[in-house]
């Protein structure tokens, strides 16, 4: 693969509070990819920044009696510390409240405004105004009674009870969240980016290899929507913490305009501060079509959450195209994070801050590895099952990888003064070459963000290494002085396996791999090619285990500390919903799983629906052909159903706690939803939902079916 120069960013964390583990998912994914690209020979410039503008920051700072600048600086210090401790190693970390960002935001805006025809329009907008605070109110700063279901205390853009979306002006008895006053409707001139001008460009851009097929399909839905792409409101009225719009007194750039420009501002600052690059490098890099020395390709990659795809896949490339700057070459999109199968919860202690995780004594590489075992190129939701987390780290990293060295390194130190064999016999040489060949696809898997395939291959080779050690039993060879040569070969071969695996693990668990490589093997992992040849005729240092098993008490401590720290904390300022988006907080947003196995504990009456709504459900009878536990999950059962004319169906259902002997369900008839969209889970595809009743946990009961009902019959 040709070496490249790559400019990489991840979604910018919003400066409204500490990082939590939901944020870390995307940040860790980015760092793993960056490290792997460097090991493959690419030059990578990895930058990010705090996203600091907007009404929430202004009001939060006011609430604690600080200026916005003071408030965001304290948050930035915490973010920097969390990134450092979790091994997310930026080349430069900055802030969107910078002179570089102001300059670039104005440059992009004025190029769009001054184009012929102009890509900026103005028109009057009627919106709510707080007469006490003397400010226009964002939708999330207005509450009232839902016009659809009558539920009180709902935000101005959507109802959390019935899910309806609406305009704030539709609310019954609206109130300002900021002051409690009844808001007034007032007109204000707003500035709009004419996104529709770039429809043809966006179609061409999306025809390239810029994102996963599912992401491109979603973006094309917006492109093909009735009425086309709508103009995007890019202005906000004073008072507002942000950058003023040139030649527009009292108007400020909406934060979503200058937040992505913050990527470029951080890169510009980084280039200017690095004497090997210099200010001119930024201008050259951002010129469309520019290449590096000898025609080396240049690329811009963004790692984001799936809920801000529209901003990065429509507005951002269109803005850059209109401003005659390089557009993104790739969007890498991650899904949401749930904990124990549910939305992160303060009451359950699963809304876990990054610092709380560390304070519980948990190695940050544990979390990096667990995330890697489930990350792929697709924007799939990921569940942090805390029991599976413990078991996977203890089994894969300690029980397989570290175990190779801990069972063999001591013999090299004791009997050979740390000296490895000078050569390997043919059998071992062939086995090592086979292991190298087996792990070689990891380089491509890393490039495509398919980290789960990387870890799968690593575990397979680790199993082969442990089988080699078990078969050759160095502890037995050590008892026979005449077989010391065999002992040295066996232990050398085992440690070559260990070093090989350490090379491919380095992007995922850099801190641990680096310590082991430097302090034990006496080498550094600069490239994947380091793994191509075995370590021979080398003196190693005594092995010291740097990776201890997870103690369940550490997880218990983390959960308890999360409950205490978050329940006692003051409630945060209202935040924008995922629909309105923010640079970083939304990209790492956590959401409840939409798995067909999910159940609800709610006993509240659902909103009334029509018979037409009910008729959309295709409820069917099925006979259970197979039912069993699911490896890696303590919540799911796997069902294979006979659905009559519909054929066989596989369904994963979260009822394991209620049915500890799943084999007894074989032959039973159940009711399931047959027309639910298939759900791809890490265990396989779930093709429907089996209906049950109860409050959850072990209080769930499958619906019974009378004799005479046969597989495939519709339920009416």
Helix content: 25-40%
Oligomer: single chain
Question: Spatial order of the strands in the main sheet?
Answer: 3-2-1-13-14
Shape: globular
Distance between the termini: 59 Å
**The biggest beta sheet, please?**
5 strands, parallel
Structural class call reads: alpha+beta
Q: Which range does the strand content fall in?
A: 15-25%
Question: What is this structure, in a nutshell?
Answer:
With 716 residues, the protein is an alpha+beta fold. Helices cover 37% and strands 17% of the residues.
Please tell me about this protein's structure.
By secondary structure, the chain is α+β, with helices and mostly antiparallel strands. Helix 12 runs antiparallel to helix 18. The longest helix has 22 residues, at 451-472.
Descriptive keywords:
5-stranded parallel beta sheet, 716 residues, alpha+beta, 25 strands, 5-stranded antiparallel beta sheet
